[in-house]
Amino acid sequence: MENLLARALFGIPAVKGVEFGRGFAASELRGSQNNDPYRMREGRPRPVTNNAGGILGGITTGAPVVVRVGVKPTPSIAAPQRTVDLATLEDAELAVRGRHDPCVAVRAVPVVEALCALVVLDAWLSYPPEPAPAATARHD
Predict the structure, then answer these.
(1) CATH of the domain at 82
(2) Nearest of 31, 29, 35 to residue 51 by alpha carbon
(3) What is the CA radius of gyration of the chain?
(4) Three-state SS string across the chain, please?
(5) Are 57 and 2 in contact (CB under 8 A)?
(6) The pTM is what?
(7) Is residue 19 part of a domain?
(8) Burial level of 130, CB count in 10 A (0-12/13-18/19+)?
(9) Does residue 139 form part of some domain?
(10) What is residue 140's predicted lDDT score, i.e. its pLDDT?
(11) What does the alpha-carbon distance between residue 81 and residue 97 come to, in Å, rounded to a whole number?
(12) CB neighbour class for 124 (10 Å; exposed up to 12, middle 13-18, buried from 19)
């Protein structure tokens, strides 16, 4: 599941990072600190913590899937920026005119949520339905 979500999320042009659960912070822990121990809860084995973000070995655990996406800042801002004029090969200044959003993150949230929903639905639909129980012949 992680690879399906990450592949789709990195398809969003402004996305520069994706992490699941504790993500990069987990790389600073020992395995004993990062493990998600299981205990019996309501008659079923359930993870006590969710450091893995609801996915272990690519398979969902039943815990909430936690994914965070890092979005780069918008480069087209109203402030003048240094650049190079490729026609003259000289240093130049670029001034972007018009309306430009200072932060794409506000618009990115519904895009990320919708994309994740589509990936989960696609994964769910990719598995064939359970076969119906075989009918048993009755001989009276």
Answers:
(1) 3.60.150.10
(2) 35
(3) 24
(4) CHHHHHHHHCCCCCEEEEEECCHHHHHHCCHHHHCCCEEEECCEEEECCCCCCCEECCEECCCCCCEEEEECCCCCCCCCEEEEECCCCEEEEECCCCCCCCCCHHHHHHHHHHHHHHHHHHHHHCCCCCCCCCCCCCCC
(5) no
(6) 0.75
(7) yes
(8) exposed
(9) no
(10) 61
(11) 12
(12) exposed
For 135, phi then psi, to 5°, come to: -75, 140
Residue 138 belongs to a domain: no
Q: Which residues pair with 109 in a beta bridge?
A: none
Please provide residue 58's backbone torsions phi and psi, each rounded to the nearest 5 degrees: 85, -5
**pLDDT digits over 90-118, tens only?**
999 988 877 666 677 788 899 999 999 99
Instruction: Assess if residue 129 is contained within a domain.
Output: no
**What is the tens place of the pLDDT at every residue in 22-72?**
999 998 989 888 999 999 989 998 889 999 999 998 899 889 999 999 998
How many domains in the chain? Answer: 1
Tokens 């655990």 label which residue?
Answer: 61
How many Cα neighbours within 13 Å face the side chain of 85? 8
Q: In the chain, what is the straight-line distance between the N-terminal and C-terminal CA atoms, in Å?
A: 50
Domain that holds residue 99: 2-124
